[in-house]
Write a structure and sequence with these properties.
Length: 279
């Protein structure tokens, strides 16, 4: 059974972050998965000369670039370097979307492909315009919203920056690296990194990895069987159990069954079940 991080909602992970064993299992599985995907992509069937300007070479290079970013994200999160991981989230989507655009091999994508080989930047709107024509306006709007949500990490929105702070005395902001001012032991500067930040970033990475592997099949870089086998051989036999139930889920569950008559009692029980850290 895989780690519960796979497919987890980032907001739910943020609200219920104390699942260290679950996250550690995800990191082990993701490391194995990325290594297996690397072996699928880095084969003799993907050996391109420098002067090759084909769709196939571009798609492969961009897929490899996205995989490199996925692996860098994972390494960063294992070191509690969430800021670095967050800045790579959009890079992964950009690489995959550009690969999909070039893979379409349409008349509209041919000129941008050659410009890309000339080292020009191809804006993401080109892919969004392609999606709008091919799949309709709602699909393009959903893509834009997803892209915008990841952009807040790259462009350092207020919320993204707050992910690196805790609340101290009188609700003042304390940087999560402040520990280095008071300690010299290894990891002192990472001691205050918020668990909810790491939990939500792990969930974002898991979702990006799932989308990436699905795209590999669409792009013709891997077969369904290869991807399924990569996941199957990367997942551990037993899933580390979650220690806590999501507070919202529990409140909704109790409220729906009518076992509690008052909202405050639901909140009290939710608190008792969920608000405990690792000893």
């Amino acid at each position: 059974m895989p780690s519960h991080v796979w497919g987890r909602d980032p907001q739910e992970a943020f609200e219920e972050p104390y699942e260290y064993g679950v996250q550690e299992q995800f990191c082990r599985e993701a490391e194995q998965l990325f290594a297996r995907i690397y072996r699928i992509l880095n084969t003799e069937s993907h050996r391109y000369p420098l002067d090759d300007r084909s769709h196939g070479k571009a798609v492969w290079l961009l897929a490899m670039d996205a995989l490199d970013s996925l692996r860098d994200c994972l390494k960063s999160l294992t070191r509690k370097e969430h800021r670095l991981a967050g800045k790579l989230f959009r890079d992964i989507v950009e690489s995959v979307d550009l690969a999909a655009y070039f893979h379409s091999a349409t008349k509209e994508s041919e000129s941008p492909l050659q410009k890309w080989y000339d080292d020009q930047i191809i804006p993401h709107r080109k892919y969004r315009d392609y999606v709008k024509k091919a799949q309709g306006k709602p699909a393009a709007e959903n893509l834009a919203k997803h892209y915008q949500s990841l952009s807040r990490f790259t462009h350092r929105s207020y919320r993204a920056i707050l992910d690196g702070y805790i609340r101290g005395k009188n609700d003042s902001l304390v940087h999560d690296g402040t520990g280095e001012l008071y300690g010299t032991s290894n990891g002192a500067e990472k001691f205050l990194v918020l668990p909810q930040t790491l939990a939500s970033y792990h969930a974002v990475l898991a979702n990006l990895a799932l989308n990436y592997t699905a795209e590999l099949v669409i792009l013709g870089l891997a077969s369904n069987n290869e991807v399924r086998e990569a996941f199957a051989t990367s997942f551990e036999a037993e899933a580390i159990p979650k220690r806590f139930l999501p507070r919202r889920w529990l409140a909704e569950r109790l409220g729906r069954t009518g076992s509690m008559g008052r909202e405050q009692e639901v909140e009290d029980i939710s608190y008792k079940v969920t608000d405990h850290g690792d000893e």
